[in-house]
């Protein structure tokens, strides 16, 4: 469970997010809203990439940056922001080095994740030669090997074609972690447990997709 209590974010004197009071216990949560409504800023609070100007974010009662980073993984919209090493295998080992895992255990985790998502053939490839969809999956694999309890995705399907979008949606559905997905792709979120609708830096709608999404669409038609 992750909680936001009285959270506000301000930058250069400008209010970006305000009055965020939430407890998230659902397995699949979507985040929608117009461009500039504060979704990415909200998403980045989950694992401490962004810190609140006021209020606190806690994962099961622990709010230190170290705890948030340990429990919550973050998948960026553009995998180039996430993939740093020339070889896929090196990139996947990168985060695990910080955990100081024995080599065998690190290898086992990497093999398991690659195998599970049918990515084993990419293990020794150069990361800059991967397609956009392959990169997106390797970025997700890099987060999964860290075994976080929750994963936040910021617009994960924007760069993907229909095939890769389907592959990612299937992967999302099969994850045992709880997931939070920021997306303009309303189809992706229609079977989620809960959807948060942001408007001008605050939550304007919160509930099941069948309730929140139609109201959001209605507002866009005004
Ligand atoms: N450093 C900053 N200083 C001032 N304003 C900022 C800063 N960073 C972000 N903003 C503003 O905060 C608002 C929210 O940005 P955010 O990226 O969270 O929106 P978003 O809902 O994710 O948008 P999009 O759908 O376009 O990705 C935007 O108006 C943005 O211009």
UniProtKB/TrEMBL annotation:
<dbReference type="InterPro" id="IPR015856">
    <property type="entry name" value="ABC_transpr_CbiO/EcfA_su"/>
</dbReference>
<dbReference type="GO" id="GO:0043190">
    <property type="term" value="C:ATP-binding cassette (ABC) transporter complex"/>
</dbReference>
<keyword id="KW-0067">ATP-binding</keyword>
<dbReference type="InterPro" id="IPR017871">
    <property type="entry name" value="ABC_transporter-like_CS"/>
</dbReference>
<dbReference type="InterPro" id="IPR050095">
    <property type="entry name" value="ECF_ABC_transporter_ATP-bd"/>
</dbReference>
<comment type="similarity">
    <text>Belongs to the ABC transporter superfamily.</text>
</comment>
<protein>
    <submittedName>
        <fullName>ABC-type cobalt transport system, ATPase component</fullName>
    </submittedName>
</protein>
<dbReference type="InterPro" id="IPR003439">
    <property type="entry name" value="ABC_transporter-like_ATP-bd"/>
</dbReference>
<dbReference type="GO" id="GO:0016887">
    <property type="term" value="F:ATP hydrolysis activity"/>
</dbReference>
<dbReference type="Pfam" id="PF00005">
    <property type="entry name" value="ABC_tran"/>
</dbReference>
<dbReference type="InterPro" id="IPR003593">
    <property type="entry name" value="AAA+_ATPase"/>
</dbReference>
<dbReference type="GO" id="GO:0042626">
    <property type="term" value="F:ATPase-coupled transmembrane transporter activity"/>
</dbReference>
<keyword id="KW-0813">Transport</keyword>
<feature type="domain" description="ABC transporter">
    <location>
        <begin position="2"/>
        <end position="219"/>
    </location>
</feature>
<keyword id="KW-0547">Nucleotide-binding</keyword>
<dbReference type="InterPro" id="IPR027417">
    <property type="entry name" value="P-loop_NTPase"/>
</dbReference>
<dbReference type="GO" id="GO:0005524">
    <property type="term" value="F:ATP binding"/>
</dbReference>
